[in-house]
Amino acid sequence: MSNRIGKAAYKPVGVLLGLAAGTIAGVIFRQVWSLTSGDGEAPSATDEERRWGEILAAAALQGAIFAVVRAAVDRGGAMGVRKLTGRWPD
């Protein structure tokens, strides 16, 4: 079995996992933001009422959470493909 099979098997899985990771990361971010800031809603970059520090802190936190969730989901997906195909997707 060639490695192309592993890659081909992972492509649709990777797309679905990417969507799931974004959703999961968004939920986690909103919960963490609410707990740490005491504010129910994170600021958007164009929110005139919010200060630069708060906006940049929210963006950094959101990016870190997304990166960790995405890496965990991608790794799990790759491991699943290896179990199914016997090959690690590159």
From TrEMBL:
Alphabetic keyword roster: Membrane, Transmembrane, Transmembrane helix
Protein name: DUF4235 domain-containing protein
InterPro entries in alphabetical order: DUF4235
Pfam families: DUF4235 (PF14019)
Originating organism: Micromonospora viridifaciens
Domain of life assignment: Bacteria
Segments passing through the bilayer: 12-32, 52-73
